[in-house]
Structure formats: structure tokens, C-alpha cells
Amino acid sequence: MTTPKYRRILLKLGGEALAGEGGVGINPKHAEEVATKVKAVKDLGVEVALVIGGGNLWRGRTGIQAGMERVTADHIGMIGTVMNALALQDALERIGIVTRSMTAFEMRAMAEPYIRRRAIRHLEKGRVVIFAGGTGNPYFSTDTAGALRGKEINADVLVKATKVDGVYDDDPKINSNAKKFDYLTYLEAINLQVKVLDMTAVTMCRDDNLPIQVLNLWNDDDLLKAVMGEKVGTMIGR
After folding, report:
1. Which pLDDT tens digit goes with each residue over 25-42?
2. What is the 3-state secondary structure (H, E, C) of 101-112?
3. Is 57 exposed, middle or buried (0-12, 13-18, 19+ CB in 10 A)?
4. Which single residue of 7, 12, 19, 106 could bond 146 by disulfide (Cβ 3.0 to 4.6 Å)?
5. 1: pLDDT strictly greater than 60
């Protein structure tokens, strides 16, 4: 295949993709590495939107375990995703990729408010769009935000880029005999309660048949290979 399989993708990243030492904070060098991978896909003519988590800056469950109200803990996490979005936007623009960050709640001094039609127009104009702030509501993960935004912008695939090269039947770091799946149906993924992706996100993708590609962001060229339709990671679909 000499042309990309997908015209428009939603790339879902965890905050750890930008993390500094110990998996916390923002390391600008890691943001640059991610930006370079996004640019390689963009250079193929693929429209790229991203949703990024905030786990490198805040884990809501930490606050909840300390007695914090769940809504407040989630709001802090949502703000963390905006910080990551701005760091990644900066890294992308420093290598010549015009980028727009859009937030699910208003922060007009720093980013545009999310408006679906405007987001699609940015993509059509060749800009990378980063969706920050999750869904704008507590109780929903950024995986769910990725599924939601992917459906709203009519993405061809949701790419869940992690540090694991696919979905396994057990933790491969603990069990050397863990089996990797090349393909799962949505129902199989739900029944397995796969750890790499929120089940609400999987269910949303199933309802509108948005395929999910799980891959290791840091494996050489795996993101590019997936966009070109080559077999990498685990595909979840019908």
C-alpha cells in the first residue's frame, strides 16, 4: 500500500507520553519526540487530531483516596490535560506544524473553546488539533473523550498509543507466556475487560463502528505502519 489507509485519525495519548523522570511532570524533549511522530503521519497527508490525558500531572484517584470530592479531583485532572496540550502544541509548532488546542471548557486566553465544526475546519485546513479538558465533565476518562471526539469529527480510526504493543490476555511484564491478540471484536474486548482502554470508550466506538488500533507509540514507525494499514499492535472492531 503506497497511500495511507486512513484520511483522518484521532490519536489518544496518555499524559505519560510527555512525562519526565519518574513518570511525572512534563519533559519538553519527550514532547518533541511525540511531535516528530505526529509530523511523520501528517506529512503523509493524513489529518491528525489528538486527545491527551493528564496522568503525568495529576491522578484523580490520589485526591479521592485522601478524601477529596470526586468532581473536584476530576476537574484538577482536566486542567492537567490543558497543560499537556499546550506543551505538545509548542513542540509541534516549533517543527513547523500549525496546531490548535481546543478545550472542553472555556480558557480563552490560552486555547479555543471546542466547537465541532471549527475543529473539522481546522483539520481540513491541514492543522493538527489537540482536544484538551476531556469531555468537559467529571466521571469520564480521557479515553472516553477520545472516542467522543473521534466520532464527532468523523475520524476513520481511534489510535490508542501506549507503552504496550497491543492487547494481551495477561500482563506481559508479569507473565512471559501472555498471549497478544492481533484482532478483537468490540464484544471480546469488553468481555476481557482490557486494561489498556476504558470500557465506556470501547462501547462508544462499538455503537458507531469506530475501529480502535492499540499500539506502542515508542516502537519504531509503528504509528506510521498503522496509518498505512500494516499489521501492528491490536485492532479492535466488528
Report:
1. 999 999 999 999 999 999
2. EEECCCCCCCCE
3. buried
4. 12
5. no
Ordered by start, the domain boundaries in the chain are 8-237
The alpha carbon dihedral of 87, 28, 122, 155 has a sign of negative
Query: Which residues, listed in sequence order, are joined to residue 48 by a DSSP beta bridge?
Result: 9
Q: What is the pLDDT of residue 46?
A: 98
Residue with cell 481546543: 102
Helix (H, G, I), strand (E, B) or coil at 225: helix
Quote the DSSP letter at residue 190. Answer: H
CA distances from 11 to 143, 162, 171, 174 (A): 10, 10, 23, 28
pLDDT tens column, 41-86 = 999 999 999 999 999 999 988 899 999 999 999 999 999 999 999 9
Side chain identity, residue 9: I
The residues facing 49 across adjacent strands are 10, 129
Does CATH place domain 8-237 in 3.40.1160.10?
yes
pTM over 0.90: yes
> Which residues are within 8 A (CB) of 73 and not within 5 positions of it... i.e. 6 or more apart?
60, 61, 62, 63, 64
Q: Are 186 and 206 in contact (CB under 8 A)?
A: yes
Q: Show the cell assigned to 93.
A: 509548532
